């Protein structure tokens, strides 16, 4: 970390020197000051937290988010103000916690966008940065609500003085506008008015901007006093939010178009939906839902998903809050009476592997795929109230979802973990724990499946154009994660080429399923090749007996 070049008095206060612009060291100083301020006011902000869920963690989440950003900046060799803001913003977005944490991280990202390529950050950059941050924050939230951190941020941006004014004057005006907007949030949001408090996230943002003003002006701005709520736990949530009992959050790698569809899907499942991006295809996704499995499935459908987190509000609430959460929907509070896993698995060997783990296995008919009513019948046949479905093939995923909708109408909770290959299904089963709470189990299984890459070899049925060239009927196609990466004529040669590609990313565990049409000894040949190339990789070979795919490989 570069040293922060600020003069300090014996009392530890920042000196009175006024900055005309921000550089990388000033951003480092701001990051430290912001974390210090949010940590000092964490309990106060937590107590203000009554919207969208009175779970008392907004201060904790915002402090953790800024601390992550500050840590990322400290670890970065950022020479320019643009590099420093980019490191701060990215660290905050990747580690952002909670609704307000994700939103404030997006505001930082807007400020970083305005600093790209700049050596100095003056009033013009601050004006553009706050405006861009507000735009990104509003865009990230599926259903923006006024009277929240969004309103406070917009006020700070819009009340910046026009023209070429000193940076100190600009930030002072922004802080004053934000503080004034915060005082009026109870006028805009009935949940705040009933509790007699200002918005928690908005209060955190005012402190964040005040920390920046302190760095620039050398003086701590005067802020309005904030009253604590009389009884936070007695305040009802805003209309609609009481129905959703879980907070789901994860990171996603996807294009912007995919996130638009994701935001719509999550909005149909719940509320408090925020999808915030770093600008390079990484997104922090946040939502309040009841169907945890469906929320995770939506992310996996959009792109690679990791660092999945699920919090049940009733578990996070203190004793005084229990009565409020107990009034939620029965589906979120009933005791689990029985659980089951149903999977689709072609090939006698593959079916045996799943059945050995206590999984209900469905086998497609020869030459025909299963239909939704077939899968629904199997789910009903388990007699379980909570069921996980593993389709194990991309073409079967829609069938599994259709079957799940049929059975949900009967009051059964069904989660589809979108496994695209039997090896992903086996990875999910490896972490399945019947004693674990259903939603936690779904999260663990989804994470395990998403962390497993899969490769397949199949035979081209016709001449066609692939991503690596034209294949002829009868050619062997090597696929990784569903995409053709090799075209060849020799099974062993294509298999070795796939293995080389997979080992290139680092592999701890490899599972090989040998198909019905594979020659004898193929599995052992591949295992020997892997042990020679990567002796630390653990290889397991099974006779899967699956049709159409002489070889399926999974790596973790």
From TrEMBL:
Signal peptide positions are none
What SUPFAM superfamilies is this protein classified in?
Answer: DhaL-like
Give start-end ranges for the coiled-coil region(s): none
List the Gene3D superfamilies: 1.25.40.340
Q: Which InterPro entries match?
A: DegV_domain_contain, DhaL_dom, DhaL_dom_sf, FakA-like_C, FakA-like_M, YloV-like
Which residue ranges does the record assign to the DhaL domain?
A: 25-214
Q: Which domain of life is it from?
A: Bacteria
The record, for NCBIfam families, names: YloV (TIGR03599)
Name of the protein in its database record: DAK2 domain-containing protein
């Amino acid at each position: 970390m570069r040293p922060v070049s600020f003069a300090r008095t014996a009392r530890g206060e920042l000196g009175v020197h006024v900055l005309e612009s921000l550089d990388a060291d000033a951003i480092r100083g701001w990051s430290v000051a912001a974390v210090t301020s949010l940590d000092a006011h964490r309990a106060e902000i937590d107590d203000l937290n009554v919207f969208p869920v009175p779970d008392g963690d907004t201060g904790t989440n915002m402090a953790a988010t800024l601390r992550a950003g500050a840590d990322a900046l400290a670890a970065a060799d950022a020479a320019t103000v643009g590099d420093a803001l980019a490191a701060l913003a990215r660290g905050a977005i990747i580690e952002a916690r909670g609704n307000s944490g994700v939103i404030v991280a997006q505001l930082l990202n807007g400020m970083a966008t305005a600093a790209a390529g700049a050596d100095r950050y003056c009033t013009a950059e601050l004006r553009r940065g706050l405006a861009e941050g507000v735009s990104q924050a509003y865009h990230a939230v599926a259903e923006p609500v006024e009277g929240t951190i969004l309103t406070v941020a917009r006020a700070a941006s819009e009340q910046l003085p026009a023209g070429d004014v000193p940076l100190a004057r600009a930030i002072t005006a922004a802080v004053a506008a934000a503080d004034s907007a915060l005082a009026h949030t109870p006028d805009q949001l009935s949940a705040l008015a009933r509790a007699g408090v200002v918005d928690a996230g908005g209060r955190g943002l005012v402190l964040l901007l005040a920390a920046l003003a302190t760095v620039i002006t050398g003086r701590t701005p005067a802020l309005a006093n904030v009253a604590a709520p009389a009884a936070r736990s007695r305040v009802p949530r805003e209309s609609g939010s009481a129905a959703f009992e879980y907070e789901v959050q994860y990171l996603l790698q996807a294009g912007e178009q995919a996130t638009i569809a994701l935001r719509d899907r999550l909005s149909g499942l719940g509320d408090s939906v925020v999808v915030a991006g770093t600008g390079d295809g990484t997104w922090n996704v946040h939502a309040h839902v009841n169907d945890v499995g469906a929320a995770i499935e939506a992310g996996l459908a959009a792109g690679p998903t990791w660092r999945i987190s699920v919090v049940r509000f009733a578990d996070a609430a203190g004793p005084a809050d229990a009565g409020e959460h107990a009034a939620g929907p029965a589906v979120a509070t009933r005791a689990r009476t029985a659980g089951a896993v149903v999977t689709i698995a072609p090939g006698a060997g593959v079916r045996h592997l799943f059945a050995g783990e206590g999984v209900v296995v469905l086998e497609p008919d020869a030459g025909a795929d299963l239909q939704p009513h077939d899968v629904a019948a199997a789910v009903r046949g388990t007699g379980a109230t909570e069921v996980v479905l593993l389709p194990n093939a991309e073409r079967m995923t829609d069938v599994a979802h259709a079957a799940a909708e049929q059975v949900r109408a009967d009051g059964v909770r069904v989660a589809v973990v979108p496994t695209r290959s039997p090896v992903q299904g086996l990875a999910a089963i490896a972490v399945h724990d019947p004693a674990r709470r259903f939603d936690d189990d779904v999260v663990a299984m989804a994470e395990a499946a998403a962390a497993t890459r899969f490769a397949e070899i199949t035979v081209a049925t016709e001449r066609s154009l692939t991503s690596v060239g034209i294949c002829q009927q009868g050619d062997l196609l090597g696929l990784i994660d569903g995409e053709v990466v090799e075209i060849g004529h020799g099974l062993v040669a294509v298999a070795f080429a796939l293995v080389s590609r997979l080992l290139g990313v680092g592999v701890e565990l490899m599972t090989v399923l040998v198909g019905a049409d594979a020659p004898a000894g193929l599995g052992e040949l591949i295992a020997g090749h892997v042990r020679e190339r990567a002796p630390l990789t653990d290889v397991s070979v099974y006779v899967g007996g699956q049709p159409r795919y002489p070889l399926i490989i999974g790596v973790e």
